[in-house]
Amino acid sequence: MKDKILKQITDYYLNSRDFNGFPLYNFDKNYTDLICQLIDEDKVEVLSSAFVLNPHIKTLRLNIDKEEQKKEVINKCDSVVLYPTEKYLKSLNINSEKPFTKMLLDGQEQLKILFFNIEILESYFQDPRYEVFWSDYRGSIVVADEFYDDNLEGEYIKDFGLGYHKEKLYEERVVGVFLGDLADLSLNAQLKWKINYLDHQQDYFINGGFYKNLILGEWVDEVSIYDAVLDEMIVINNMCENMDIPHLFNKIYKPHTFEKPEDYRIMFLPTLKNYYGFMLALEKIIVHNINYKTFTTVARFIKPVERKDDKGNLKRSLQMMSEWLKQNIRTSENIDELIINPLKSIRKIRQVPAHEIYSNQYDKSLLKKQNEMILETYKAIRSIRLFFVNYPGNRDIKVPEYLITGENIRVY
Question: 374-378: long-range contacts (C-beta < 8 A, 24 or more apart)?
Fold first, then answer.
């Protein structure tokens, strides 16, 4: 009878759609003693509402004391659910062509995070058949509607997160995915991800925001520096309205959404092509987006600058900005060093792919260069807002609290 009970629990787990546990109330007789013996023999384990929110799916490895498990069975507590143990399942040597489905067949937990070479994401970003939604530390992959019937329906990743090497940290980014999501992929898709599976999984860890949000169910109050730049631009334009001058930026992009320029994000593959793509997006968002009319408009306490130089040539926007800031702001800070030079660097780097033929290269140092560039850009844009706040009435303009404190801004 004990073997029959174990088989019933095991068959239910293996044949259920989501590798569900067998509810204790499904037994038509009282098998408490036999189930407790199976727990002692490491063949059956127990989840209940006393241990987890949803005991019908084994989400995490909990290592619950056996006596506590047996107590739930003896007391027939609410939502007692039985599972074959990982040790017992592995002894069955169940075969499967699908490598990640095999891991669930062997009893591993659904929310186990597996780590992969981050380059696999590039194949999805560069393929128009997929839509990749990315929000700085987590994202998802879906098949575009028009291609859903092209044998791609098995490629759907509900959640993936940014991970790092424990020693190299931000110098080596990886991608982490829940085992449950990977096990739902088609055979071809699982094999594709398996190729990018990293050895020494224990050397990697997932981003804290991903863990807090999706594992612990906690609210994440961190903000990406990429969104912080866009929020600063919104505040600056609002201050311009109060100053009765045209918006400093012609176009505003929505932060904290997926509605941002495609390459305005961290690079997944550190190549020159991707780096220059990022610089092009940054140049369009910031430098090319500057409104020269801001600097030629007369307003209260504000002196304009000329549109043309002494020779009658049109001045560039950054030259006008430099003159305008120095003319209207009293500060001991070096305005060119603080604001103008970082923005000039964007334009200078952007000119390379625009005017030269270059060969694409793989270079991990580009990750550091990208981080340095977005940091310098943020400091420049933030400095403009801090200068503007001293204009009469601008202190009443609403500024997101995180921009004021700067405490939760992250470079992922």
Answer: 374/225, 374/226, 374/229, 374/282, 374/411, 375/225, 375/411, 376/342, 376/345, 377/229, 377/282, 377/286, 377/342, 377/343, 377/346, 378/225, 378/228, 378/229, 378/232, 378/409
Tokens of 22: 């067998």
Beta bridge partners of 108: none
Do residues 327 and 333 make contact, with C-beta atoms less than 8 angstroms apart?
no
The amino acid present at 239, given as its one-letter code, is M
Q: Are 346 and 283 in contact (CB under 8 A)?
A: yes
Q: How far apart are CA 251 and CA 286, in angstroms?
A: 9
Rounded CA gap, 85 and 173, in Å? 33
**217-254 per-residue burial string, b: 16 or more CB within 10 A, e: under 16:** eeebebbbbbbbbbbbbbbbbbbbeebebbbbbeebbe
Residue 152 has a pLDDT of 58
User: Rg of the Cα trace of the chain?
Assistant: 28
pLDDT at 127: 86
Tokens 């799916």, located at residue = 57
pTM for the model: 0.84
The secondary structure of 12-77 as a DSSP string is HHHHSTT-BPEEGGG-SS--HHHHHHHHHTTSEEEE-TTT-S-TTB--S-----HHHHHHHHHTT-
The ranges of the chain with pLDDT < 50 are: none
Note the pLDDT tens digit of each residue in 15-69.
998 999 999 999 988 999 999 999 999 999 999 998 998 999 999 888 899 999 9
